């Protein structure tokens, strides 16, 4: 969906709209990577819950656009078979806030947040991903 489609409706993109953008972004990643995230649940919520924000030391819920919860692939073992599934959370309101601030494509922003969280699933730290991102520029 384009920025203009949402502006024409004069309403903010819904949880379902963000979910559709995330599904499209996931469909667009290379199949070899997509296979590695096939068991990861992707959830769209308004904000991170208070407990999560507190654990992460975050005061402003608008600063957290996404979160990976699970055991990174590089750390998985057979003992993990009975645990909760890995999950990626995308937080709608912080994403929309950033979208409004940057004026860029909402689809591109959702993709960026999703790919960042997929990076955590592969075991990359924020610093690792920042270094990789710097190589592209």
Overview of this protein structure:
InterPro entries: Zincin_1 (IPR010428), Zincin_1_sf (IPR038555). This is Metallopeptidase family protein. By secondary structure, this protein is mainly alpha-helical. It has one domain (about 5-70, about 85-130): Zincin-like. The protein is about 50% helix and about 10% strand. The chain has seven helices and three strands. It has helices at about 5-10, 15-30, 30-35, 50-55, 90-100, 105-120, 125-135, and strands at about 40-45, 65-70, 85-90. The protein has a three-stranded mixed sheet with strand order 1-3-2. Helix 2 packs across helix 6 (about 105-120). The longest helix has 16 residues, at about 105-120. The chain is globular, with a radius of gyration of 15 Å. The relative contact order is 0.18. The model has no long low-confidence stretch (mean pLDDT about 85).
Outline the fold blueprint.
Blueprint: H1 3-9, H2 15-28, H3 31-36, E1 41-45, H4 50-56, E2 66-69, E3 87-91, H5 92-102, H6 106-121, H7 126-135
Parallel strand pairs: 1-3
Antiparallel strand pairs: 2-3
Order of helices and strands: HHHEHEEHHH
Beta strand %: 5-15%
Rounded mean pLDDT score = 86
**How would you characterize the largest beta sheet?**
3 strands, mixed
The structural class is mainly alpha
Give start-end ranges of low-pLDDT stretches: none
Instruction: Tell me the domain tally.
Output: 1
> For the largest beta sheet, what order do the strands appear in spatially?
1-3-2
Query: Could you tell me the number of beta strands?
Result: 3
Number of distinct helices: 7
Radius of gyration: 15 Å
How far is the first residue's CA from the last residue's CA? 27 Å
Helix content: 40-55%
CATH topology: Zincin-like
Classified by CATH, the class is Alpha Beta
Shape: globular
């Amino acid at each position: 969906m384009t920025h203009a489609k949402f502006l024409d409706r004069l309403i903010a993109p819904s949880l379902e709209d963000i979910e559709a953008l995330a599904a499209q972004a996931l469909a667009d990643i290379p199949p070899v990577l997509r296979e590695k995230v096939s068991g990861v649940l992707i959830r769209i919520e308004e904000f991170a819950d208070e407990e999560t924000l507190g654990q992460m030391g975050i005061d402003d819920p608008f600063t957290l656009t996404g979160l990976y919860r699970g055991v990174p692939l590089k750390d998985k073992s057979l003992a993990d078979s009975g645990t909760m599934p890995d999950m990626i959370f995308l937080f709608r309101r912080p994403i929309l806030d950033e979208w409004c601030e940057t004026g860029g494509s909402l689809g591109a922003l959702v993709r960026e947040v999703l790919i960042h969280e997929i990076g955590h699933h592969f075991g990359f730290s924020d610093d690792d991903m920042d270094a990789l991102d710097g190589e592209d520029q």
